[in-house]
Amino acid sequence: MDERVCVDCWRRENLTFAQRLDPAFVKPGPVHRCAIHQAGHDALHGGGDSTPQAA
Ligand SMILES: [Zn+2]
Q1: What pLDDT is attached to residue 39?
Q2: Ligand 1 centroid vs 11 CA: distance in angstroms?
Q3: pTM score above 0.85
Q4: What is the pLDDT of residue 53?
Q5: How much distance in Å is there from the Cα of 55 to the middle of ligand 1?
Q6: CA distances (Å), origin 9, targets 6, 35, 46, 50
Q7: DSSP state for residue 40 in the 8-state scheme
Q8: How far is the CA of 46 from the centre of ligand 1 (A)?
Q9: What is the tens place of the pLDDT at every residue in 3-35?
Q10: Phi-psi map region of 31: left, alpha, beta (phi>0 left; psi -120 to 50 alpha)
Q11: DSSP label of 47
Q12: How many other β-carbons are positioned within 10 Å of the β-carbon of residue 11?
């Protein structure tokens, strides 16, 4: 079973707005994002991730 939790969803569920802006409140462990937040993350960083996709 995949128990990974999207860090952005986790922050939304567990942190206040102010806490979400604080780097100190980062969920420990491997970073995982759901499809929605991963797309937003890619857009935010110009989509230059090291995850090449075949055409
Ligand atoms: Zn999410």
Answers
A1: 93
A2: 9
A3: no
A4: 61
A5: 26
A6: 5, 11, 21, 23
A7: H
A8: 19
A9: 778 888 988 888 898 888 887 877 667 788 999
A10: beta
A11: T
A12: 19
